[in-house]
Design a protein that fits this description.
alpha+beta; seven-stranded antiparallel β-sheet; 4 helices; 29% strand
Length: 175
Amino acid sequence: SSNCIVTALANLMWYWGGNNFSKLRPDSFKNLKSTLQELFLGYQGYTNNSVPYIAQQYVQSRSSSYRCNSSVYWKVKNDVLAKLRTEINAGYPCLLGYMAHANSPYSATSGHMTMCYGYYISDSITYVRLADGHSSSMVVRVWNATYNDCVIKVRPYYETNGGTTQSITSEGMIL
């Protein structure tokens, strides 16, 4: 029942809460979505460009030692498929946007945000693995540069008292 950007970011935070950032996972997924929804509504509403700010606010609200590296990559200026592959190949799920388009698997009249956790290539076609918010199970969709308009990376990390940062690898090891 929440906005798709809220649900996609909640899926991503829930993932990170189970992977080395336990404080990002509250007592329920419903409470996580509610908190994120309040943050979006208190900022600039449900926009893709708001995600980095909202992610940072949420991460820091859960632990003073957590920080977040987040960026929005739009297809106008970036090869978003390359950005998606970079994130997934490094072991980081990311958000994947679908703009309103007649050929979109979601809607011809409104955009949609998903959490992407994988991809594969078959017969020169790229397929993306998604938690799309419309289904309780994971789905696979064909990547299409016409309507896949943005990738948003959201990577939490630890900040030590000395101000240095530590990254988490895809294997869960602190560097």
